Amino acid sequence: MSGVLAVLEQRDGGLRKVSFEVTSAARRIADVRTAPVEALLLASGAVSEADQVGRFGADRVVTLTHTAFARYAPEAAARVIAECVKSEAHDVVILPASAMGKDLAPRVAAKLGVPLVADVTDLAVENGAVVAVRPVYAGKALLKVKVTRKPAVLSLRPNVFTPLEQRRKAEVRTAAIELPEGAGRVVVRELKAAAAGAIDVAEAPVVISGGRGLKEPANFKLLEDLARAFGGRAAVGASRAVVDAGWRPHADQVGQTGKTVSPPLYIAVGISGAIQHLAGMRTSKVIVAINKDKDAPIFKVADYGIVGDLFEILPRMTEEIKKIYG
């Protein structure tokens, strides 16, 4: 039986959390098909924690190094991944639907001449075929897709697949590769990283997003205070309206034209709940909404709703969270 390839993601020589999620999802498919899992990393040198990927289901971890991979090199990366799939005869390829993965996954699928099933939230195998579930119509419905063409190329929504540790030791290998001159027309000149200590909203276990109800950008300090109370586990997000108004950077935007998040806990503060925003967060495990309008659409998807003045509620909530997390 052909294997399952898990394409991992690294930044500045360190593995991203989503890599372990992708590996665990690959293991789920491989166990049903009695197939091996190969984890692939593209980097400019050794990647820390690469030897730990076996604990999450990989049988083999391969790091291919080249100076081009010091930054994201989309065309070169897609070419190398596609060649790896062909040479090893993998019939399932799984990538993260992260900011980078959303750009890379369709490139890989195009190189292989197969469709891409993007933003997957559940995986299974039925009669030997991979079956994926993905949200459609701005998250209002779930589409079940049976993938019959090989290789099956899938991208997984971050924070949906829980990394599961197991007693498995992977074979770890690092090899330098050659790339032809001009391997890519696209060259990444610079990466603007988030401030030190800041968590990406797409990876944070707790996301606290604010909207127009905060009245002015200075009031986002209330959300930042609440985020700090969670002891470094929370990120501050924003609705499209406040990003368009220049209150917050686009990197913080949650929604159809921003980032799609699925944290264990999502807190929406002063957000009415437009369809565009709901599309980016409605798959969160637990949703808490705070809004003074009891008829706000956000309450239709919320697990817990608080109707009231956010300027009174947030400071009290922050104090209570501090008691829990010290």
Mean pLDDT: 91
CATH architecture of the largest domain: 3-Layer(aba) Sandwich
Q: Could you give me the name of the CATH homologous superfamily of the largest domain?
A: HUPs
| Number of alpha- plus pi-helical segments | 7
| Secondary structure: number of strands | 17
Share of helix among residues? 25-40%
CATH class of the largest domain: Alpha Beta
* Distance, first to last CA: 51 Å
Q: What is Rg?
A: 21 Å
Low-confidence stretches: none
What is the string of helix and strand elements?
Answer: EEEHEEHEHEEEEEEEHEHEHEEH
Based on secondary structure, the structural category is alpha/beta
- Which of globular, elongated, flat, extended, rod-shaped describes the shape? globular
Strand line-up in the sheet with most strands: 7-11-6-1-4-5-12
* Portion in strands: 25-35%
CATH topology of the largest domain, anyone? Rossmann fold
Integer count of domains: 2
Task: Profile the largest sheet.
Answer: 7 strands, parallel
